[in-house]
UniProtKB/TrEMBL annotation:
Protein name as it appears in the record: Uncharacterized protein
Length: 68
């Protein structure tokens, strides 16, 4: 999998790469996870997961502000 310039900013191989199909708006983005089998994670799963990550970040930041 190509590094798309990430190797210039970060050492080692890419962990995840997003491919956005700009030539076909009906296709969903694909997320490729660096693994021996080149696993592809569907957009819906990444979107769901990142929504949970965003909620957790917001919860943690709110708790830290309350502690101050």
């Amino acid at each position: 999998m190509p590094a798309w310039g990430a190797d210039a900013r970060m050492p080692g191989r890419d962990f995840m790469a997003a491919l956005v199909p700009d030539e076909d708006p009906s296709r969903e983005p694909e997320f490729h996870v660096h693994s021996p089998d080149g696993h592809v994670v569907p957009y819906e799963i990444v979107h769901w997961f990142m929504g949970h990550v965003a909620d957790e970040v917001q919860r943690c930041r709110g708790a830290m502000q309350e502690a101050d």
